[in-house]
Amino acid sequence: MTTNPRPETRHLPVMLSEVLALLRPRPGADFLDGTLGGGGHAAALLEASAPAGQLLGLDRDDQALSIAARRLAPFSGRFILLHENFSHARSVLSRYGYEGVDGVLLDLGFSSFQIESGERGFSFLRSGPLDMRMDQREECCAADVVNQASESELKRIFRELGEERAAGTLARALVHARTAAPITTTSHLVEVIERIVKRTPHTHLHPATRVFQALRIRVNGELEHLAAFLNDGYRLLRPGGRMVILSYHSLEDRLVKEAFRYWAATCHCPPQLQVCACRWSPQVRILTPKPLTPTPVEIALNPRARSARLRAVERHVPREG
Fold it and tell me: Strands across the sheet with 309-315, in order?
C-alpha cells in the first residue's frame, strides 16, 4: 500500500494562465477537457464559467477520474466525468446531446500521480512493475513489449518514438538480457539501459528517458489516438469556439502543428491545378503562429512543465449571406 501524500496535493496544471486566456471562459460556456488528469484546468474553467457553464471531462485513467471528481466536487451538477479516450470525443459529445462546445482542451502530458506512483511503471526513478498503461483495461503493458517484440521492432520503437540514438544497441542488449530472465520491473530495465547509455555533463536527461518515453507512447497508442482526434477535431467546436492543445515532445507537436495548418488552409489541391477543385474553405484561425512555452517562473515552480508547447485555434464563424 502506497504511503505517498495524496496525489491531488501535488497537481499543478501546466500553463494555466495561458490556457484560460486563450479559451476565454465566460458564464454559461461549455467545455470539453479530453485529458482530465488531476482536474486542475477543469476546475479553473468551471470557476470562470460559473454559474451555469458545463464541462465534460474524459480520461483513460480511472484513478485520474477519482482524483478529479474530488477536486471538482464544489462544482457538483456542472460536470460529467467519463472513463473514455479523447479520440472518441465526437461520439461522446453526441451521446450527451452536444452538437459542439465553446472550448476544447487537450493536455497530452501524463499526471504527477502517474509518474510518482511506482506501481504504475511510468518512472525510471521508482522501482515497480513495468506497466505504463494509462488505461488499466488494456491488455498489453510495457513488459509485454520489452519481452516479446523482436530486436528490429524494439529498434524501431526506440528510434521513432523515443528519438534514441543508441536504439540499435539498446535493442540488442534488451534481447540478450531477457534470455537470462524476463525484464518485468522498471529497475531491471533501467539497469540494462545504463550499461549502454552513459550520463554526460552536457545533458540533464536521464539515460532511460527516451526509452521510457518510447515504450509509453507505444503501449498507449498515443500518436494513433492523437491522429484520430486531429482528423476532424475542429468539428467539436461551435462557431467561435477555441481549442488548446498542450504537447510535450516533438512527435506530438508536429502532428498538432500540421493538423492546425491543414484546418486553416484555403485549399488542398495539388500546386499544378490552376483552379481549386477541393472546395475546401478554412475551418479555423490559428491563434498561435508559434507555440507558446512556459515562463521561467513556472518552470522553476513545476519543472515537468519545461517541455510543454501550447498551440491554439479558433473555429471560423460562417459569413452571413
Answer: 79-83, 54-59, 30-33, 101-107, 237-247, 309-315, 284-286
